[in-house]
Every structure is written in structure tokens, then in C-alpha cells.
């Protein structure tokens, strides 16, 4: 056992009550003598936080602090990400990625309030979360000690099976067993599933894997329609009624989940260089991202839309890589906010058999002009103008063709 440190040294642990942090809490106390303060963030993970204070204290925590961060999560993290259109590798709507900087930010605040010298997390040494937590700690208070047990040579609980054994030996209540071993992360925006049979990409996700959405084969045979109202890029209305941000996402999770919307099976490229397989459920997020993107097609000019699509890829990388608290992300937000000035209107969507499809868009700022878009020629568009335009636009192609034909002779 490593040499014990002063028990007066306080460490704030990002505590979810899941398998990893449930065993890490007593391990930190047992191995190093830390006074561990458990910090849990309420981000909309259902009943997962039920009894969490009692569980943390029973596991050896000196104190357990729980903060309801749902409103801050949506308004300061999810909405900026949605306005940017950020999706990682075409499928992942960044539900876990976007939550980590918020949790870490409040960990740092708790550390300051409690006089702690360090902050700890239960992320593995192979994953992305270790980067997201630690970059946030470094950005907000580089003087804090970072305690990461999975990268500690003394930490031997380096498999979920070993963690289950440790929990059983120390009488720590956990939901996982060696047969029920999925690693899950849930919040308002999504739930992720990793591990067990999913580690083989050849295995199809089982129907009983899904938690907040139905398997597509078990969804209704009749579609539902929903109308999302947005103001400057932010969803604010549900079927014509002003709705709070949290309730809007909750309602869309329920309705989207009913139809199996937002299920994604992805082999993704982790920041640390490893390919990993995850299955994600993001019903509400998929509906709102679809609505937002549809409204942008109506209200953004061509060049701004195309450039913003490039920005979205970079924005997604920044979120995925844990660089939320970075100058570049702040600068991109400034650009995105300007693009959203006219993204106001209503989007009607059809939910059916796992799909979320567009059923209509309207906006007071629409750039769509029926007379111009119509196949019928009118006074507002002189087709003869296109002749000169095409000649000039195609001049480089024509010159290249002429030169190439001379070379071939």
C-alpha cells in the first residue's frame, strides 16, 4: 500500500453513484487517507440520484453535495452546441461530452468552497472523459491537484469485473453485476451504452439495451407530428406554447422515445487514438437538432450556411476533445450567434418508426421566394442573364480543356 497522506487533505470526487465512482470513493480513502467530498450533478439522469447522499456517506464520503444543474446545462451548454449544429462523426450528438465540462466546473467551485486541494474523477485511462475532466480543471484552476485513480499504478480495479468484486467485498451497493455490466451515462440530452457484448461491432444491439426509447420494431404503427418554435436559434415553443428549456427536452425525449427516434450505433474515433463502439439514444436531441437545421436552410444565405457547416465540424471536435473552456470555442460562439439572428420560425416534424422527418417550415425571415423558386419563368428572373454568368463561371474549365486538348495532339 502506498504511503498514507494527511487525512486533513480534501479531495472533491465527481460522483455519479455508478460502479466506477462507487469503488473509487472508498479506495481513495483507504489507500491515501483522503477526506473525500462527493459531488453529484443533477443533469436529468432520471432516478439515478435517488439515495445518492446516503450511498456516498455509507461508502466513506465525508460529505456529499448534490447540485441541480439542469437549467444551466441546457441554456449554457446544450443550446450553444445546438446552435452550432455540432455532431461528431455524423451520428454522435455529444451528450456525454457536453456534460463533462459543466460537472468539472462545479467540482472546482466546490473545491474552492470546501478548502479542498484536489479534484478527482473516475474516468478510465483509455477514454475521452479523463481528458474532458482534466482540461477543465486545468483551465479553471491549474493549482488544484488532479487525482485520477485509473492512471495510478496502485489502482488494481482496472476492469468492471474487478470493480464488482471490490464492491461486493466492501459491501458497497451497486446495480451492476458481472452479467449486467454495460457502462452507461445518462442526462437530459441522451443515454450512452458501452461495454459487454457491444465491444464486438459484429453484435447487433439487443432490444433490452434501450432505456429511454423503444426498439424500432416495437414502435407505434401511426406517426405523431410535433411543431417546434425557435427564436434566434433556440427552441422556445412546443406546439405553439412557450415551454421552459428543460421541460421541452423532457417532452421531446418522451415523444421521440415512443417512436424509437434518435438511436445511433457508432464506431467512433476517440481522442486517445482508439476506436470504440457505442450505442446512443438521443430522442429529444435528434428532434431539436433536426428542427434547428431545417430552419437554417430557410433563413441563412448560401455562403453563411456553407461556412457554418464547416464550423460545426470543428465545434463538435472541440466539445468531444474536452476543449469547452478554450478561446477558440468562445470565438466560434461569437460567429454562431451572429448567424442565428434570423433563425426564428416554426418547424413541423413527423415521428415514425425511428425516423424524424421534416413536415413543413415557416419563418418571418425566410429567404425562400416562391416566384424565384418556381419553374415558371417570370419578370423577376431573366433567363438570358444566365448565359453570360455560365460563360464566365465556366471560363477556367473551358481554358483548361483547350490547353489539355493541345497537349494531346
What would your notes on this structure say?
This protein has 409 residues and is of the alpha/beta class. It has helices spanning 19-32, 52-58, 70-84, 95-114, 129-140, 160-169, 245-258, 283-299, 302-320, 327-339, 370-373, 385-393, 395-408, and strands at residues 10-14, 35-42, 63-68, 118-120, 145-147, 183-186, 191-194, 224-231, 234-238, 241-242, 263-269, 275-281, 345-352, 355-362. It folds into 2 domains: 10-83 and 91-180, Rossmann fold; 190-300 and 342-362, Argininosuccinate synthetase, chain A, domain 2. The strands form 3 sheets. The chain has a 5-stranded parallel sheet with strand order 3-2-1-4-5, with helices on both faces. Helix 4 (95-114) packs across helix 5. It is elongated and about 80 Å long. The mean pLDDT is 93.
Notable traits:
single chain; 409 residues; alpha/beta; Rossmann fold; Argininosuccinate synthetase, chain A, domain 2; five-stranded parallel sheet; five-stranded antiparallel sheet; 13 helices; 14 strands; 41% helix
Amino acid at each position: 500500500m502506498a504511503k498514507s497522506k494527511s487525512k486533513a487533505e480534501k479531495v472533491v470526487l465527481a460522483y455519479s453513484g455508478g460502479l466506477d465512482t462507487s469503488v473509487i470513493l472508498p479506495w481513495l480513502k483507504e489507500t491515501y487517507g483522503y477526506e473525500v467530498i462527493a459531488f453529484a450533478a443533477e443533469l436529468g439522469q432520471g432516478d439515478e440520484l435517488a439515495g445518492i447522499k446516503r450511498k456516498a456517506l455509507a461508502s466513506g464520503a465525508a460529505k456529499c453535495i448534490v447540485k441541480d444543474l439542469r437549467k444551466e446545462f441546457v441554456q449554457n451548454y446544450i443550446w450553444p452546441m445546438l446552435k452550432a449544429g455540432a455532431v461528431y462523426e455524423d451520428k454522435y450528438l455529444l451528450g456525454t461530452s457536453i456534460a463533462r465540462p459543466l460537472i468539472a466546473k462545479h467540482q472546482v467551485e466546490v473545491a474552492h468552497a470546501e478548502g479542498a486541494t484536489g479534484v478527482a474523477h473516475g474516468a478510465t485511462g483509455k477514454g475521452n472523459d479523463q481528458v474532458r475532466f482534466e482540461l477543465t480543471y486545468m483551465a479553471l484552476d491549474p493549482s488544484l491537484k488532479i487525482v485520477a485513480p485509473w492512471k495510478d499504478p496502485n489502482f488494481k480495479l482496472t476492469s468492471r469485473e474487478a470493480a464488482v468484486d471490490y464492491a461486493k467485498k466492501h459491501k458497497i451497493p451497486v446495480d451492476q453485476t458481472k452479467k449486467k455490466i454495460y457502462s452507461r451515462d445518462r442526462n437530459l440530452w441522451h443515454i450512452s451504452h458501452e461495454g459487454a457484448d457491444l465491444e464486438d461491432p459484429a453484435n447487433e444491439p439487443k432490444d433490452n439495451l434501450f432505456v429511454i426509447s423503444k426498439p424500432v420494431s416495437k414502435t407505434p404503427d401511426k406517426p405523431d407530428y410535433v411543431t417546434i418554435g425557435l427564436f434566434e436559434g433556440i427552441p422556445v415553443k412546443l406546439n405553439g406554447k412557450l415551454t421552459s428549456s428543460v421541460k421541452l427536452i423532457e417532452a421531446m425525449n418522451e415523444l421521440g422515445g415512443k417512436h424509437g427516434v434518435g438511436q445511433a450505433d457508432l464506431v467512433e474515433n476517440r481522442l486517445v487514438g482508439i476506436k470504440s463502439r457505442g450505442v446512443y439514444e438521443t430522442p429529444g436531441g435528434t428532434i431539436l437538432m433536426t428542427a434547428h437545421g431545417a430552419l437554417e436552410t430557410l433563413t441563412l444565405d448560401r455562403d453563411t450556411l456553407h461556412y457554418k457547416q464547416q464550423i460545426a465540424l470543428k465545434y463538435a471536435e472541440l466539445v468531444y476533445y474536452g476543449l469547452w473552456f478554450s478561446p477558440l470555442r468562445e470565438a466560434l460562439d461569437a460567429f454562431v450567434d451572429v448567424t442565428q439572428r434570423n433563425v426564428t420560425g416554426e418547424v413541423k416534424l413527423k415521428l415514425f418508426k425511428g425516423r424524424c422527418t421534416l413536415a413543413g417550415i415557416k419563418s418571418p425571415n425566410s429567404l425562400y421566394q416562391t416566384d424565384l423558386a418556381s419553374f415558371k419563368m417570370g419578370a423577376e428572373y431573366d433567363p438570358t442573364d444566365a448565359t453570360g454568368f455560365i460563360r464566365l463561371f465556366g471560363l477556367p474549365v473551358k481554358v483548361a480543356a483547350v490547353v489539355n486538348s493541345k497537349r494531346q495532339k
